[in-house]
Design a protein that fits this description.
This protein is an alpha/beta fold. The protein has helices at 4-13, 152-160, 199-209, 224-231, 254-260, 295-313, 367-372; strands at residues 20-24, 32-33, 37-38, 48-49, 53-56, 66-74, 88-92, 104-107, 111-113, 117-120, 130-131, 142-144, 148-149, 165-169, 173-179, 183-184, 195-196, 213-220, 239-243, 264-268, 272-273, 279-283, 286-291, 324-328, 339-350, 353-358, 375-379, 391-396. It has a six-stranded mixed β-sheet with strand order 8-5-7-6-10-9, with no helix packed on it. Strands 18-15-19-23-22-20 form a six-stranded mixed β-sheet, with helices on both faces. Strands 24-26-25-27-28 form a five-stranded mixed beta barrel. The structure holds adenosine monophosphate (AMP) and magnesium ion. Magnesium ion (MG) binds next to loops.
Length: 404
């Protein structure tokens, strides 16, 4: 059995970025931009007012208070093109360009005014509340460097730079094939000893959340011809994930059947719990991850191996699950040779770190504790027994706030 780290390295070594496509900015959030984005605009295009008030010549503010003649007004999107002479002011609004010869904005709150004149009660230094042309960026500037995962903020910048289209990595297509005579899809007629296939939807949701496109190949029966037939559709995908049938049982057909269809196995079985029967190889030239069928196993395998694989397909640095320290609220016995990922909840906080409690039942078929878990406690191979209040490593599973 190889270690989790070795497995990750072997998988990532065999995965290369997919091609690119051009998408509208409105669908580019979260996508990986592959070309530097140069601005097609200077922003602001001219010196502009940052406030509602009066555009004046700073030289007219040497003595305060002073009264100036109002010779016109300029709203955002408009212009006042006439000359502004000494002793004159132009009514101006936020986002409007400064009239010629004016250089300073006096905010409305610092004035008394009527239709004809304005009395300025507070002085303002030259340039006050003026946004000079190009303050934000200039035409031709590289506003964003590639590769970059586009955030909502980046979308705003690209829009302001007048780039309605952007070249991004296309979404990696991840084919998901469930296997098992016992499985039916949610909502379908179900026999007495059958169960609902939950895995494929769980993993599909994870694939989409990681920036991939999930392709559901359906459920193959536990026989060679069904498996052979269903797997054909994987050939247009960038990666194949099989769920179930990866173990040593008589009905675990992934290796024996796909082996005859050109599957070459790189590794099978890793020192990890849950997820020991994980398999990695190539099928029809595409990378293939064979995951065990229990929902917790396939979720944790996806978390540890599929998300980084999708990162690699998207041409970005493969992520490591974020780890942090936590306090144990109870004893934990020593670990064996397999790296352990245990479902737990956060029950409090001490000295700035979470206090965690394991679910009593760690059965890898159980979806309710998986859904309720706040974190995974990670235990290294052969980790020593721990006592109450000892420190452990954990991976948080909760996302506190949307990414902007
Ligand atoms: P297997 O890896 O095929 O031996 O499956 C291990 C366990 O996971 C069995 O109890 C299966 O019934 C269950 N299982 C397999 N595939 C799924 C699935 N798609 N959804 C939920 N449970 C599954
Ligand atoms: Mg099975």
């Amino acid at each position: 059995m190889i270690s989790v780290d070795e497995a990750r390295a072997k998988i990532l070594k065999d995965i290369h970025p997919v091609g690119t496509e051009v998408v509208a900015l409105s669908s580019a959030s979260g996508r990986v931009m592959t070309e530097d984005a140069r601005s097609r605009r200077t922003q602001p295009p001219a010196d502009m007012s940052a406030m509602d008030g009066f555009a004046v010549r700073a030289a007219d503010l040497d003595t305060i208070p002073t009264t100036l003649k109002i010779i016109g007004e300029v709203p955002a999107g408009g212009a006042y093109d006439g000359a502004v002479k000494a002793g004159e002011a132009v009514r101006i609004f936020t986002g409007a360009p400064l009239p010629p010869d004016t250089d300073t904005i006096v905010i409305q709150e610092d004035t008394d005014f009527n239709d004809h004149s304005v009395t300025i009660k507070e002085g303002a230094a030259r340039g006050t509340y003026v946004r000079p042309a190009g303050l934000d960026f200039r035409e031709g500037d590289i506003g964003l460097k590639a590769p970059r995962i586009l955030s909502p903020r980046d979308i705003g910048l690209l829009a302001a730079m007048n780039r309605p289209w952007v070249t991004v990595r296309r979404k990696p297509r991840i084919a998901l094939l469930s296997t098992g005579d016992e499985l039916v899809r949610p909502g379908e007629p179900i026999g007495p000893n059958q169960i609902i296939s939950s895995n494929s939807l769980l993993v599909a949701a994870l694939v989409e959340a990681a920036g991939g496109e999930a392709i559901d190949l359906g459920i193959a029966k536990d026989n060679a011809s069904s498996l052979r037939e269903k797997v054909q559709d994987a050939k247009s995908a960038d990666m194949l994930i099989t769920l179930g049938g990866a173990s040593v049982g008589d009905h675990d057909l992934i290796q024996p059947v796909l082996g005859k269809e050109g599957l070459s196995v790189d590794f099978w079985r890793i020192a990890m719990r849950p997820g020991k029967p994980l398999m990695f190889g190539k099928f029809a030239g595409i990378p293939m991850l064979g995951m065990p069928g229990n929902p917790v196993s396939s979720m944790i395998c996806s978390f540890l191996f599929l998300i980084p694989a999708i990162d690699a397909l998207r041409g970005i640095e493969p992520r490591h699950p974020p780890r942090q320290k936590a306090w144990l609220s109870h004893e934990l016995k020593e670990n064996d040779q397999r790296e352990d990922y245990m479902r737990a909840t956060v029950i409090g906080e001490k000295d700035g770190l979470p206090v965690v409690k394991l679910f009593a039942k760690q059965d890898s078929s159980m979806l309710s504790p998986l859904s309720a878990a706040d974190c995974l406690i990670v235990r290294s191979p052969f980790a020593k027994a721990l006592g109450k209040n000892d420190m452990v490593d954990m991976i948080p599973l909760t996302q506190p706030y949307p990414v902007v």
